Amino acid sequence: MIRPILICALLALSSAPALAGSFAGTSAGASSAGSSASSDSTSGDDKVVLQARDDAASFVASDGQIRGAQLEAALRQLRERRPDARRVNDMQLARAILAL
Question: Would 27 be classed as within a structural domain?
């Protein structure tokens, strides 16, 4: 359920004038309510990104001056797993995380 919402939010952000990059997704994936025990690691990906929301808010509010550990982990994970995340800057990714 998170994946469709995430993709829609990120697609909307990628077309916003404030965002110069073309970011169209993240590493977050959908896992149904009963399948958390599956071998698919996307539920862990969702968790890392979602837990970074507070850090992302601080980062955006401070114009990049405050960089929390959870945000750093989410940025690293997004860039490792999503080629499109490598083309945008930290501020754009932080705003995309906030849009979740």
Answer: no
CB neighbour class for 39 (10 Å; exposed up to 12, middle 13-18, buried from 19): exposed
Range of the domain at 52: 2-17+42-98
Q: Are 23 and 93 in contact (CB under 8 A)?
A: yes
Question: What domain count does the chain have?
Answer: 1
How many Cβ atoms sit within 10 Å of the Cβ of residue 8? 11
The answer, as to whether pTM is greater than 0.70, is no
Residue 29, phi-psi category: left (phi > 0), alpha (psi -120 to 50), beta (remainder): beta
Q: pLDDT digit string (tens) for 46-100?
A: 899 999 999 999 999 999 999 999 999 999 999 999 999 999 999 999 999 999 8
